[in-house]
Design goal:
The structure holds 2 protein chains of 2 kinds. By secondary structure, chain A is of the alpha/beta class. Chain A has helices at about 40-45, 95, 110-120, 160-165, 170-180, 195-205, 220-230, 240-250, 270-280, 290-300, 320-325, 335-350, 370-375; strands at about 1-5, 10-15, 30-35, 55, 60-70, 80-85, 85-90, 125, 140-145, 155, 190, 210-215, 235, 255-260, 305, 330, 360-365, 385-390. In chain A, strand 1 and strand 2 (about 10-15) form a beta hairpin. In chain B, helix 1 (about 1-20) runs antiparallel to helix 3 (about 35-55) and helix 2 (about 20-30) crosses helix 3 (about 35-55). Chain B starts with a helix and ends in an 18-residue tail after the last helix. Classes of the chains: A alpha/beta, B alpha+beta.
Amino acid sequence: MKANCWYGKHDLQIRDVPDPKILNPRDAIIKITLTAICGSDLHLYDGYIPTMRHGDILGHEFMGEVVELGSGVHNLKIGDRVVVPFPIACGNCFFCERQMFSLCENSNPNAWMAEKLWGHSPCGIFGYSHLVGGYAGGQAQYARVPYADVGPLKVPDELTDEQVLFLSDILPTGYMAAEQCNIQPGDTIAVWGCGPVGQFAIKSAYLLGAERVIAIDRVPERLRMAREKAGAVTINYEEANVYDTLMEMTGGRGPDACIDAVGMEAHMPGPLYAYDRVKQAMMLETGRPIALREAIMACRNGGTVSVPGVYGGLIDKVPFGSIMNRALTIKTGQTHVHRYLRPLLERIQNGQIDPTFIITHRLRLEDAPEAFETFKNKQDECVKVVMRPN
Amino acid sequence: MRGARALGWFSIGLGAAELLAPRQLGRLIGVRGHEMLIRSMGAREIAAGIAVLLEKRPVRSMTGRVAGDAVDLALLGAGLNSSRTEKGKLGGAIGAVAAVTALDVLCAVKLRNGASSNTIRTVQTIAVNRSPEDCYRFWRNLESLPRFMKHLESVRVTGDSRSHWVVTAPAGQKVEWDAELIQDTPNRIAWRSLEGADVNNSGSVEFESAPGGRGTIVKACIEYDPPGGKTGALIAKLFGEEPSVQAKMDLRRFKAVIETGEVPTIEGQSSGRVLSST
């Protein structure tokens, strides 16, 4: 089969690789009908996530048709159309039983690696480095899905692939980011980053009862999308001081909750950006937490900072004094996708949300290496790339 | 060992002084001229210090230090016959080096003695989302141990409390022993190898109810005497530098098998690597 393989920083190649095989009784093989590039794939592309190996197959947002089942999977049949959650979860452990699927204790065969870096290991993740299992990803024609009796969600025929694909990651991720804000009537929520997760966080915040959502970015078409499709008020951080503007809009109190949908490769004008860029290049910190710092400082006293943005290791100059003295709550984590699959499928079915509005590029799998470059540089008004590999 | 590390750092400090300020140092110990000689002694000193710091159990490099001390003492002693030295200061320097030599000898001897009786013991625990009874039952069926103990090829029950264990080593070689159960209660199983084993070893596993109905805390303790010779080398290769890591991974696999029915793996999956299959 063909697959998008990683060969180093900014070096992706479409290669012919062996078809996946069933390796464990609870595995399934999926023939992929639609797959996507995620913003978090860019951290791999830019070489910021350690333990990638040459030839690793990328991709963790995919769906398709069941073509082979292990002897232990009884709830799926050959031919079922399924969406696959990006976290790999066993369904049996302490965390899975408590619906914290992205913290599954059994799905990461390299848990010892993650323990060295993070103290404990999260779940295994498709196509996201050997730190989280080294599982082959879904930017390919086929993929092996472990614990297929737990993860994949059967989708109804009347919904198109594009309508349900984002249940695999970014729609639940944006939704969980908003849910973590514990939104109350009258709340103002500020969202840093108007990429796909940011867009879905805005939408979700409104669905969960926010009065007003303020979105922050610098890319004109993304700000326009946030205004026109998701209904946010926007701030272009290259044109206005974000903190001052937010204070002006909230009577000096600050947003009730702030969402960092940017993560470790933030941009920002000014010398602090150069400081973090240099430290990151010298491996003295692994992230540039510029959006995070701003979200913490802007958040109102006693408010919540929700962080769906990805961080890999260590970051500098996080204003913990601001968090402590002002009683902020920080909520974060890889998304417990399984928990949100059915409720969000329902919201799609009854028309409360149509996730297709973020798609700007419909390509072939062969175009993936070039599409990464376009997406990374936000050229051609690129917000979301989906690809049909078969 | 802390004494060895301190001596290692001392070497680097002294070596740096000899290398960077040979004239001043020479004056201090009552030797004029010979800057090149002092510099080269400094370089040797630094190398010796680094060697001591790099080794985990610096038996060899500490022995090297003792040899180095002998050279230093010989050179200083030769200085006593020269007309360009101040005998009083030089005598002091010889005294100081002799004291350090004594420390080095002591440290090297201590390390050597320690090396001969080093039973390796590791204790690891893991929380398992199953009852202590389930965990006991799974473990007590000794023939299923290879399902989660990576290097164990087979366990064959040969009698009431006896069993035969086979471990596969790289290059198709095998290490075998007979073992007997020495304790078998619902909360603890313990075993030890019998005479004639390739490797003397013993182990135990305990199943303790976790508070609040949160399953079981499993605690495994493995002990073995690494034998010398070829078998010893094989065992070292098998368990690597850290037998504790191996034991922890086996426990993790036990947890996965009993909780999910399988061990998570990527061995044999697709990739764009040419030769390897993972």
